Amino acid sequence: MLFDLVAPYTTICLAGMCKNAGKTTALNVLIRGARERGILLGLTSIGRDGEREDLVTGTYKPPIYVTEGTLYATARGLLPKCDVTGEILALTGIHTPLGEVAILRALSDGFVELAGPSMTEQVVSLTERLKAFGAQKVLIDGALFRRSLCAPQTAEGVILSTGASYGPDMEKTVADTAFVGSLLSLPEGGPWPDLLGRRFYRDAPYDDLPAALEGRGDELFAAGAFTDAIAASLLRRKGIPKTIHVEDGTRLLLSRENYEKLGARGLSFRVRSRNTLVAVTVNPFSTYGAPYDGEAFLRRMQENVTVPVVNVQKELPWN
């Protein structure tokens, strides 16, 4: 089911609400789906993934299993940790703490560890190079709290993974996941003005928020990240814009509480480029405590998001 949902897109970013949310399991589901359909994949990661033990928490992580012919980009320092036989096709000139990123072709089935770039421009360049080597679809394994690298210019579609590892309160997990999903589904607004290198625009370009808020008009345009600190500044004012435009949903680094407070003041958000949230995957098992009721978790998530919800644990023959 999950692979069928991503079929229309050539670049997919997988993002997680937390560690152990099931993101790597979702990746393995997509890899298996591509193999069954004869689709050549290109793989990379924002950060590091595929290690069998989480380097921060010490908990088990599912490895990434690829089949012969798969293209993958990873740091050279991780090549000894990959038990697949790989042919180096190119060195990219992109450097990470684990070494330069190389593009390889798997000459056998096996496990790989992935580590790739952490800048949007580098991710875009790398996905284009994977396509140039024949990848029909590129999967980008996103990093924790790096949803900004799932921006529209990086990936055509986003899969958001969530699970019981987010916290013991299932309803909070559902609500917070639905909130992030809503940010990735914001509608596009009108044409953007020329900011002339400035940070904000409200009838004219401005360098800082206080000056912009003294401007006229009901619409505020904001380049870069829109954070809780900016939201707090708005909430302290009596008069605020009716609409705030941001580049895309990944630029809204807001808490659900502040987002709802702004909404209660009559403010809405629009984006310059719309993200495409393809699906939400759920993992009812927790690395840190008691699991959720799987059926209840799936049902509550389906009731609170507008995209398909998939329990990927049921789509793999192994866990």
- Low-pLDDT residue intervals, each spanning 5 or more residues: none
Number of helices: 8
Integer tally of domains:
2
Strands of the biggest beta sheet: in what spatial order? 6-7-5-2-10-1-11-19-20
Query: Which series of helices and strands comes N to C?
Result: HEHEEEEEEEEHEEHEEHEEHEEHEEHE
Beta-strand fraction estimate: 25-35%
What is the average per-residue confidence, as pLDDT, rounded to a whole number? 91
Instruction: Report the strand count.
Output: 20
CATH topology label of the largest domain = Rossmann fold
Tell me roughly what share of residues is in helical segments.
25-40%
Shape: globular
The name of the CATH architecture of the largest domain is: 3-Layer(aba) Sandwich
Rg to the nearest angstrom? 21 Å
Instruction: State the secondary-structure class.
Output: alpha/beta
Largest sheet: 9 strands, mixed
In the CATH hierarchy, what is the class of the largest domain? Alpha Beta
Give the termini distance in whole angstroms.
17 Å
Plain-language structure description:
- The chain is an alpha/beta fold and 319 residues long.
- Helices cover 25% and strands 28% of the residues.
- The chain folds into two domains: 2-185 and 276-314, Rossmann fold (3-Layer(aba) Sandwich); 200-271.
- The strands form five sheets. Strands 6-7-5-2-10-1-11-19-20 form a nine-stranded mixed sheet, with helices on both faces. Strands 13-12-14-16-18 form a five-stranded mixed sheet. A two-stranded antiparallel ribbon has the order 3-9.
- The model has no long low-confidence stretch (mean pLDDT 91).
